[in-house]
Amino acid sequence: MPTHEAPSTSKQPVAKKQRFIIRHEKPKITTKHVMSLQHPLGIKPLGNYYMDATRSDFAGSCRGPSLGRLSQLTDEIIMEILNLLSPSDLVTLGATSRVLYGLTHLDDMWKNLTIERFKGDWVWQDDTWRATFLKRSDPGYDTSMILKNRDQMKLKGFYSDTLFQSFYCAAIGMEPYTAVENIDRHSGLSLEDFIQKYERPGKPVIITDGAKHWPAMTKWSTEYFLKTWPDAVLRAESVDVKVENYFKYAQGTKDESPLYLFDKKFGERCQGILEDMEVPVYFREDFFGMMKEKRPDYRWIIIGPARSGSTFHKDPNATSAWNAVITGSKKWIMFPPHILPPGVFTNEDESEVTSPVSLMEWFSNFYASTQFPDDPADRPLEGICREGEIMFVPRGWWHAVVNLEDCIAITQNYVGSQNLKETMEFLYTKRDQVSGVADDRQEGLYEEFKEAFFRSNWTPPEEGDVDTPPQEGADSGDSMNAEEIGRKRALMEMWEKNEQEIERLSKAVQQRCKGSVDGPEQVSFWEMAKRGTRAEAASDKEGESGVEANGGSGGGFSFSFGFTSDDEGDEEEPVEEESLEQENVSSTA
Amino acid sequence: MSAHSQILLTSSEGTEFIIDRDIADKSMLLKCMLEDIGEIGQAVPLPNVSGPILTKVIEYCTHHRDDPNFLSANDDVAADIDEWDLEYCKVDQGTLYELILAANYLDIKPLMDLTCKTVANMIKAKSPEEIRKTFNITNDFTPDEEDQDWVDEH
């Protein structure tokens, strides 16, 4: 598989597949071309006003007379007022003057109106949301004349950053941002190597032969979808849309942030589709599968045109994920868990993430600053994932993804041995941030998961199976062979070990907050010391210092070491000595 | 309730205004500024807001100072504007737009919503010619453009 092909070259599509947009030209990015980017209505950015003013044929800005007394207000404020108007008032207003024509034709505003009023029940018209809305409101609305006259409408003398900016972000495309490729790429990766080099340390990797053999690779295309599932309805952001209609939209839209199709129920909504794919061997250990149909949302089909994508986020419930591209290509940009991407804001526990700009705006405003950080280690990982390739997204990593061209992909989230503890900790300590289940299950998902985990006889599915098959009577434990029983025991021990540590850490944090110590907490610490987790306890300074420094009734020990919870370096030896002594005491008790 | 502390504001012409702290807090801009830098003995300059407009803004905030719903989003476009607010907005267009700009600058969302809604109501259900008259808009379409526009809308 070629690794450095430019994304938008017009290579011949594989015979059975067709892209759902045919691009006629590559976006141009030289300065000269940037400055001559033509807005379809001839609107220019404010900066051009000063340049045009030097020309002899300069007629000034039409804004004053065109807006009358409203010219006192900025374009943004006028847009706010427009958002309060009914659609018919908007249409009327657009007929009053040039500037109001331009402002009332801003398609993003009509997109919001359409989705608000009609949800997913609209038919894409004339490649604009405005026409789509008007036709849906009034079937008698004649769109044919618009198509004929569109090119002739030019708003000469209208300078507006508000209107030019979103056009510009959309028109410039992603090409300036696709050069960097610093994510490892592997084919023929062994499971062991994957775990050692990537999953355990938590490092992204592109598995270049990950989906190569999927039937989907040769089968899936727009035509195939429309032929096989003609009436399919899939989820696009907040609404359900007919797939046929969505493809029409995706083909013609000039939206800066196109509507993105992201459906978790595609397995049921498209009969037989799951047979065209399989979970790669690296990701088959998936403990959430033990919850069977009660597991949190975990797999999605993702379809979208160029510029659609996801802004920076971390995946839910501290799970890891994989993302396979069937057709098209995606640009990925990723930051490790402890580095917040520029332009992204979050509160302390990361329960709220805000990114005030669209993807294209983010690239336009912030990408450059990520390329030359003070510490070179803070640079993001970037790469392009192409057809047949699979991106591994380790738990907790910030990531943003943009489709560089029309793209169909499959993604799944999972919990394996390498991230079980993190997910357990998340479900245990951040119950209000748990997602992928109904609201009333958030509080108790940890317990639900634990119960399923201990009860299940689940083993990784055989090659070719995608779902963990729920088997009748499989929970009884009778049908397990010795090897399976041994494995099961190991899993249960792993859970218990993780749980103790989580409980200990969580209580230590609470203690530090409360500033007091309770008897029971210390007992559990000593108990753990008895069970030989001393080494871990010693290395976890946070947990201990909270317990010890506050003194206590731990069986007659004199806490004469005199360290406080802020001491770091001195604690290891003293801790171990104490533990040793306690062990002796308890064994004679 | 104990006496409120007071804030000093200066309008663009240099006129000083003394207002109670809780009234100043209706402006998110002032609220955050005061929280960040504490109370300063000197006046906060507002070069973007003239004296008469500042007076009007203070009048609005004072009237609504005990309003419990003040900060909840006033997103219901269809909801009627209450009597006092209606009267408050009976000013000439120039003043109305100055109020919008001031509410925007000072970040007083309810006042912004009210004044924008007032303008929207001036547009509602009018024909293009009536709208032009209301706002003194010039019909600057070329005859060709106007034809297409007409076709577009009908």
TrEMBL record, chain A:
InterPro entries: Cupin_8, F-box-like_dom_sf, F-box_dom, JmjC_dom, JMJD6_ArgDemeth/LysHydrox
MF terms (GO), sorted A to Z: cis-regulatory region sequence-specific DNA binding; metal ion binding; oxidoreductase activity
Positions with biased composition (Basic and acidic residues): 528-544
Compartmental location: Nucleus
Region (Disordered): 457-481, 528-589
Ranges for domain F-box: 67-113
Gene Ontology, cellular component aspect: nucleus
Iron is among the record's keywords: yes
Xref: Pfam families: Cupin_8, F-box-like
Compositional bias segments (type: Acidic residues): 565-581
Keywords associated with the record: Iron, Metal-binding, Nucleus, Oxidoreductase
JmjC domain ranges (all copies): 268-431
Protein name: Clavaminate synthase-like protein
Native source species: Linnemannia hyalina
From TrEMBL, chain B:
Pathway named in the protein's UniProt entry: Protein modification; protein ubiquitination
Matching SUPFAM superfamilies: POZ domain, Skp1 dimerisation domain-like
Limits of the SKP1 component POZ domain: 7-66
Coiled-coil residue spans: none
Pfam families to which the protein is assigned, alphabetical: Skp1 (PF01466), Skp1_POZ (PF03931)
SKP1 component dimerisation domain: residues covered: 109-148
Alphabetical UniProt keywords: Ubl conjugation pathway
GO biological process, one term: ubiquitin-dependent protein catabolic process
Top-level lineage group: Eukaryota
Gene3D superfamilies in the record: Potassium Channel Kv1.1, Chain A (3.30.710.10)
Subunit comment: Component of the SCF (SKP1-CUL1-F-box protein) E3 ubiquitin ligase complexes.
Family recorded in the similarity comment: Belongs to the SKP1 family.
The protein's role, per its UniProt record: Essential component of the SCF (SKP1-CUL1-F-box protein) E3 ubiquitin ligase complexes, which mediate the ubiquitination and subsequent proteasomal degradation of target proteins.
Protein name in UniProt: E3 ubiquitin ligase complex SCF subunit
Organism: Mortierella hygrophila
